[in-house]
Amino acid sequence: MATRTRLILTGGLIGLLLIGKAAAHEAPELIDEGIASFYSDRFQGLTTASGEPFDQQALTAAHPSLPFGTEVVVTRPDNGREVTVLINDRGPFVQGRVIDLSKRAARELGMINRGVAPVLITSVQ
Known about the structure:
The structure is a single chain. The protein is α/β, with parallel strands linked by helices. The chain has one domain: RlpA-like domain (Barwin-like endoglucanases, Beta Barrel). 24% of the residues lie in helices and 30% in strands. It contains 2 helices and 6 strands; from the N terminus they run H-E-E-E-E-E-H-E. Strands 1-5-2-4-3-6 form a 6-stranded mixed β-barrel. A hairpin with a 6-residue loop joins strand 3 and strand 4 (82-89). The longest helix is centred in the N-terminal third of the chain and has 23 residues, at 2-24. The chain starts with a helix and ends with a strand.
């Protein structure tokens, strides 16, 4: 009887571990999608809404509602490039835009010459 109980408990634990591993590999949650832009150089060094000085070389971004300190992955579906950024400001304040990126983040997405690009914003997994 003890062997049977041990076998059942072991099987149950293995099942829980497998469920946990499956949950850990779920697809990232889509947070937002739309048009991204990037900050003008004139904002360099100015204070962001979170109180930090803005740095064009940091991987940061402004979003209208995500909490400060949230990390998100920004992906350009048209070229497959992606970058992980930290939300530390509010904006963008232009209708139709969903995120404002630092110049470094925009460069990694390949959107410097274009100025704006379509993006998907997903949770960091």
